[in-house]
Write a structure and sequence with these properties.
Number of helices: 10
Distance between the termini: 33 Å
Number of strands: 2
Largest sheet: 2 strands, antiparallel
Low-confidence stretches: 202-207
Bound molecules: zinc ion
Strand order of the largest sheet: 1-2
Order of helices and strands: HHHHHHHHHEEH
Structural class: mainly alpha
Amino acid sequence: MAELRGDWTAVHELSHLFHPYLGDDGRWLAEGLASYYQNVLRARAGLLDANEAWRRLDGGFQRGRRVGPGARMDQVGWSRGSTMRIYWAGAAFWLDADVQLRREHGTDLDRVLGRYSQCCLDSDSRLEPQEFIAALDRAGGRGVFARLYRRYAAMTEFPSQDAPYRALGISESDKDTLRFSDEADAVRLRRAIMGARPTDTAPAKSE
Ligand SMILES: [Zn+2]
């Protein structure tokens, strides 16, 4: 049981079913999506404490950042040594999109991917990254995906988490320690994404 709980690979691999095959140029989007959901879905299923899921996501961002700058994300392909950057800059893209959809458009990544899978996803779907992004915007993404894609695809440095972290009330107190604000909007947003109430945070005073 401990082994099953501790294993992220099954959830990661199943999360790849949410997207079509995106080729080498879209590998960062594909691996990023699976890396984001491997933590989100485990937290929602109770396999991972919610705050631990945020820490693991952040740990991935830190590993990606340590790789240092390189080729643009849409040209990084399978280049050696950049695996952590591909996975976690990709995950940062999806977190950024999810937070923007929830805060500014009253929808979320789950809903957009769900609508996309109903209309357009077959087991042998193959798309160019830009075509997938455009399809997500048509499936309720409201232009959020195209806007973020233009920015992230051209990045040669690891993306900053400042904007999403501010909205989520997450800050780094010192090395490897995350702080979670108890400001109501931030708590609500974190809980909406990770589902479960974290076990290491005291309940809000109003409850
Ligand atoms: Zn993968």
